[in-house]
Specification:
The protein is α+β, with helices and mostly antiparallel strands. It has one domain: Ribosomal Protein S5, domain 2. Helix content is about 30%, strand content about 20%. It has helices at about 10-15, 55-70, 95-105; strands at about 20-25, 30-35, 40-45, 80-85. It has a 4-stranded mixed sheet, covered by helices on one side. The longest helix is centred in the middle third of the chain and has 17 residues, at about 55-70. It is globular, with a radius of gyration of 13 Å. It is an enzyme of class 3 (hydrolase). It comes from Candidatus Wolfebacteria bacterium GW2011_GWC1_37_10.
Length: about 110
């Protein structure tokens, strides 16, 4: 699991007026901004539109953070990355989810 210092404080992130680059697919919206830290931070937003079941939403969130942790993406310096999950992503398997994220995350 991803350590707390690598998690993006999402509420604070939206309050700040930051410039970010957006990448979009049918399954995710990825917003990337720079920070002045020696590591990257990641956040995930999964709404009720993805699934009414909290269990499925948490599985998706865990799969995203486990992918980031296993590929050591958090060790790359200076990026804040926010991943918004769209409703179609609930149909993906864990392997498909990882493949789709590989193509969208600019660090990878």
């Amino acid at each position: 699991m991803l350590a707390k210092k690598f998690r993006l404080p999402i509420q604070q992130w939206f309050k700040e007026k930051r410039k970010f680059i957006t990448r979009k697919s049918d399954f995710f919206i990825v917003r990337v901004s720079s920070n002045n830290l020696p590591y990257s931070r990641f956040g995930a937003i999964i709404s009720l539109k993805v699934s009414k079941s909290a269990v499925l939403r948490n599985k998706i969130k865990r799969a995203i953070f486990n992918f980031i942790y296993s590929k050591k993406l958090h060790e790359v310096p200076g990026k804040d990355i926010l991943i918004s999950v769209l409703p179609k992503a609930s149909e993906l398997t864990k392997q498909e989810l990882e493949e789709k994220l590989k193509s969208l995350i600019p660090i990878y």
